[in-house]
Write a structure and sequence with these properties.
Length: 439
């Protein structure tokens, strides 16, 4: 028999992709529904390992963390343990209740509003959560096998039950290529709710793993020689009447004009995007040629070595084909804040729409197998190979950096520089262990 929650966590995903929060007795929720709880905004500058970097706010400034009950995850524990209850917050000014400019959810909402105002499109988002499940009593099975699922079947069943109860609508739970690696795919959801579901889905995975006596590691690399974990984002576009507007049967590779220009904008800014979407030092142990994760800024159709790929629907029915058509962005991983990453993708895509850009040609082979002349002809260039390179590209991209609040840029850059400095003090194996403890 399950017990109702006694404690509700008011949560936010910070600039490092770490979910932080404050607890309120559930019986008191009505008392914080309107004005939330105060939070010193210097907490935004917390680093991954328990310290805090220099920031513009210091000890004085505060925002109100106001619960948004449309973004709630409640996971009863059927074994009689405590129910997990968490609600994502909106960070608001303590003076007048207006949105705080540096709140990641507000930054994303601003980007989505611009997309809608300029194109009439709403963004649909789905995520592939890849993680490594470890358990002291369960040895991992072979890649992609039924045996693997048998070994962690109790975890998989509990995850499906939890997701169904929470309305997360996981569409697949499957063994992946790495030892103990699992992939969970979510259904597409419109707008902010779709990105909120990425955060809530991560925490559901972690919580169910914990209840089963195991651990879900969403870190990009559990060890230097492990298979990498990504968090690939799939997106498409809907009009206000829910008609799909990303698909055109007569367009190049069935892309509508909107999709084509949007993808072109992503490629225009892809080095800078990498800093927000693969934002940890260990992210770059995953990214690389022939890692099945993408090492090149290349565009393909069902090509898993490309940074961006078209995923056409297999359905021959025109209506179903239009609804199933989507684009996947692959460099992203779970050390990112998904609200910030998607805001950056939207702003990059909008730049392509405003300027009428065209995407690079489709690459029909592994980009690593191309010679230099073919790469130049196809516009294929390497992705940033390290966080310092990616961060420099973001800071130098005056358009994309200018889409974010100045104080956000100051703190984000300080956090990344801290991580770069700490990572330089350790070897790759030690860095993987350090980040595995956090993610």
């Amino acid at each position: 028999m399950t017990a109702p929650p006694k404690l509700t966590m008011l949560c936010w995903n910070d600039y490092l992709g770490i979910t932080r929060g404050r607890g309120v007795p559930t019986a008191r929720l009505d008392q914080v529904r309107r004005n939330g709880l105060g939070w010193a905004v210097a907490g935004t500058a917390l680093d991954p390992f328990g310290g805090i970097v220099d920031n513009p706010w210091g000890p004085m400034d505060e925002v109100r963390q106001v619960p948004d009950f449309d973004a709630r995850l409640t996971l009863p524990d059927e074994t009689g343990g405590s129910t997990l209850d968490m609600v994502l917050v909106r960070s608001r000014s303590r003076e007048d209740g207006s949105p705080w400019e540096c709140c990641p959810r507000h930054i994303l909402e601003t980007a989505l509003s611009a997309l809608h105002e300029e194109t009439g499109a709403r963004l649909m988002v789905a995520c592939e959560h890849e993680f490594t499940y470890t358990h002291p009593d369960i040895a991992p099975g072979a890649a992609f096998t039924l045996d693997s699922v048998r070994r962690y079947r109790a975890f998989a069943d509990a995850l499906v039950d939890a997701a169904d109860a929470a309305g997360l609508a996981f569409e697949t739970v499957e063994p992946e290529f790495g030892l103990g690696q699992v992939e969970v795919c979510t259904k597409p959801i419109i707008g902010l709710a779709g990105v909120d579901a990425v955060v809530l889905g991560r925490e559901a995975i972690r919580e169910v793993a914990r209840r089963q006596g195991g651990t879900a590691h969403l870190v990009p690399k559990l060890s230097p020689d492990a298979v990498g974990n990504g968090a690939h984002i799939h997106f498409s576009f809907l009009a206000d009447d829910d008609a799909p507007i990303g698909f055109d049967p007569d367009g190049s590779h069935e892309m509508s004009a909107l999709t084509s220009a949007f993808v072109a904008g992503i490629f225009e800014h892809i080095p800078a995007l990498t800093a927000l979407c693969a934002p940890s030092p260990v992210s770059y142990l995953r990214l690389g040629p022939q890692h099945w994760s993408c090492g090149f800024a290349a565009f393909g159709v069902q090509n898993r070595e490309c940074a961006v790929r078209i995923c056409p629907s297999p359905d021959p029915d025109p209506t179903a084909r239009a609804k199933g058509y989507n684009v996947e962005y692959r460099p992203i991983d779970a050390t990112c804040n998904p609200h910030l990453a998607l805001a950056a993708l939207v702003y990059a895509g909008l730049d392509g729409v405003r300027r009428g850009l065209s995407p690079p040609p489709i690459v029909e082979t592994d980009p690593a197998d191309l010679d230099d002349a073919d790469r130049q002809r196809l516009g294929v260039v390497p992705l940033p190979a390290s966080l310092p390179v990616a961060l420099a590209a973001f800071e130098a991209d005056t358009y994309l950096a200018g889409c974010f609040p100045e104080r956000f840029m100051t703190v984000f850059s300080a956090l990344k520089r801290f991580e770069i400095e700490r990572a330089a003090e350790r070897d790759d194996a030690a860095n993987c262990r350090a980040y595995a403890d956090v993610y």
